[in-house]
Amino acid sequence: MFLARVRSARLPLFSDQGLCDGTSGAIGERDEMNGFDRGYEIPGVLWRRDPAGDDVPLVLDSPHSGSIYPEDFSFCCPLPILRRAEDAFVDELFEAAPEYGATLIAAVFPRSYLDVNRAADDLDPGLLAAAWPKHPALRPVTRVGLVRRYAQPGIPIYDRKLHPNDVLARIERYHTPYHRALDEACDRLHGEFGAVWHVNCHSMPSTGNRKLGRKGEHGDFVLGDRDGTTCEPEFTEFVARTLRGRGYEVRVNDGYKGVEIVRRQGRPGERRHSLQIEIDRALYMDQRTLEKNAGFDQVKADLAALLEALRGFIAARV
Ligand SMILES: [Zn+2]
Fold first, then answer.
1. How far is the CA of 203 from the centre of ligand 1 (A)?
2. What's the gap in Å between 144 CA and the centre of ligand 1?
3. How confident is the model at residue 11 (pLDDT cuts 50, 70, 90)?
């Protein structure tokens, strides 16, 4: 079913067979390597890992780090260029989350195939070979919508227009289950604790070059709460302060404010708090080769410290 599994050694929860045969997910399988005994996968779509005990109402998700390219993608541009759209390794940077009582969900398909951080009707009609059959009509609201047309400016992903049924199938197979998994995780914790905190994890392209002592144009981290509408201000301030305490330059709602996922999850009036976090890619990877750089382990350790601090922040509020 799937064309390529680009980073083959990175998903310890799953067997090779389970990932590639397209069968339904194995629920509750114990992962001997990591000791997690709660979680599940939907092969080709997502995986979810839950803490083994002592959980706090904290959910993280990584919607853009997937690198399993579906067979029906049929892109015509070079794969290395297409892969630069991935938020590579973000799932791995946060993989300690269950050790700190949090649930972690990650997409395994690439965001260039379908972007779950867009509404299902946020689609450019110019991409389609025929009229969109659904009502209400499409509402393209972001510059790069649900299904993107270009790998980079001037480099189209497709040599054809897409049939609306193919786009609808992508929504049904990938968009719907991803949001369902995230909703279920957040709803369960909110029901149990009366509140839930959610971190939507991303990385941002960078002009920085740490070897030359140069930072990217957006600093090290950008936090986005859609101008204070998706979480209590204390959550944003706490994450910013914790990261600054570890030496990072952190900006808030500056260039990256958060898009569909924090908009959907964030309802601070109901004690549902959702915050987007963008990490400068040059901190942890080579953006041309998509390989980890020497900074990776330090960033991962600093994010584990953030997770530990968040556990304390949340425990004091429930
Ligand atoms: Zn992203």
1. 6
2. 12
3. very low
Tell me the percentage of the chain whose pLDDT exceeds 90.
81
CA distances from 207 to 84, 149, 233, 280, 288 (A): 14, 23, 29, 9, 12
Distance 63 CA to ligand 1 centre (A): 7
Domains of the chain: 2-118+160-315 (3.40.630.40)
The model's pLDDT over 211-243, given as tens digits with 9 standing for 90+, comes to 777 788 899 999 999 999 999 999 999 999 999
Q: Note residues around ion ligand 1 (Cβ under 5 angstroms).
A: 64, 87, 202
Cα–ligand 1 centroid distance for 121 (angstroms): 19
| Residue whose entry in the numeric block shows the structure tokens 């939507």 | 200
pLDDT at 30 over 80: no
- In this prediction the pTM is 0.89
Q: How far apart are CA 187 and CA 164, in angstroms?
A: 32
Strand partners, 222: 251, 278
pLDDT by residue (tens digit) across 42-55?
999 999 999 988 89
Structure tokens that stand for 268 in this block: 């601070």
- 221 CA distance to ligand 1 middle (Å): 13
- 2: CB partners within 8 A, 6+ apart: 19, 20, 22, 44, 68, 69, 70, 71
